[in-house]
Automatic annotation (TrEMBL):
<dbReference type="Pfam" id="PF04041">
    <property type="entry name" value="Glyco_hydro_130"/>
</dbReference>
<dbReference type="InterPro" id="IPR007184">
    <property type="entry name" value="Mannoside_phosphorylase"/>
</dbReference>
<dbReference type="GO" id="GO:0016787">
    <property type="term" value="F:hydrolase activity"/>
</dbReference>
<keyword id="KW-0328">Glycosyltransferase</keyword>
<comment type="similarity">
    <text>Belongs to the glycosyl hydrolase 130 family.</text>
</comment>
<dbReference type="InterPro" id="IPR023296">
    <property type="entry name" value="Glyco_hydro_beta-prop_sf"/>
</dbReference>
<keyword id="KW-0808">Transferase</keyword>
<protein>
    <submittedName>
        <fullName>GH43/DUF377 family glycosyl hydrolase</fullName>
    </submittedName>
</protein>
<keyword id="KW-0378">Hydrolase</keyword>
Amino acid sequence: MTMFKVDRLVFEPADVDLARSPLAQDLGGQTHVLGAFNPGLTRLPNGNLLIMVRVAEALTEPRRHGHIHAIRWDNGSYVLDAYHADTVDSTDPRKFTLIGERWRVMALTSLSWLLPVELDPDGLSVVAVHYDRAIAPGSSSQCYGVEDARISRVDGRYLMTTCTVSPERHATTLYSSENGLDWRCDGIVLDHQNKDMLIFEGTIEDRYWAQTRPLGDLYFAYPPGSEWRAGPSINLATSPDALHWRPHEQPGIRPHAGTVATARMGGGTPPVLTEDGWLTLWHGVEPQGVVGIYRTYWSMLAHNDPARVVRTDHAALLEARADLTAPLAGQMYVSDVVFTTGIADAGDHFVVASGEADLACRITHIPKARFGL
């Protein structure tokens, strides 16, 4: 159970009208919503909150005639690609891996697009669902989908990073907006194998800062006895214009050797400035089963030196709640996953948005006192 008074699901697969999906014209009747989750979060000029929901749309019958099928955007329409069932490993319900390739090559069991959902100022009820402003693949670099929006507001302008998925690259694409609803694609800003890019909600000495998370299969060891564990970490980058990014030389938040809960880690919410520094919420993954256990943690970074952690907590801030998803038990395909993706100031507390079980959107009100503020 949670320690927070407000902690609930606010948007789930049944709330998506697939007749208004970007895929409807080409695949109408063949799909279902695998998940409506991992919402970016921001406050609109009218005071309402916006969650940018990742809608993972999957084939209702992906296996037919000895083949498994994947959805792909192709020059303005959506097509199905067939892979012989004997040539893939589908152990992970979110994807399948091609057997016998020299490199690890996979395809997804769903294609994701982004749905803007407007909530009331507390984030607890839906005001409007803006299907006319949905963000779907629009280039070959996005042919397998647009995923996991993170929204920052910097000097009155909204900046949204998304994960772009295709055989060409696994990259970060930037969108910008003046009002939080009408978005312009500014193109790829981080190239292959870089996820969870979070732009700080403010500049430092007139430069933009961001957290990044490069991926890879090779990491060099820390020396014996080090407090750090080799593996994915949260790095830093700076930019003069939010378009051209340079890696920061000092490391950011690294996996701690004293716990397996951060054996894999990555950014969660865009860092927000407080009186004590930049507050950032991030995820740590403990190995278990195919997917692992995802939890949310937090750190406070120094105002003028985000590479320096002022304070943090090894205890999880948020964990998955089976009681929240119990009414959706028949739709669940993973468990023990909370993936926090958005934060907004609400006076004496923060409104925090998360994806719960890769299935639904969760809103939690967390008192600022929980972070020592």
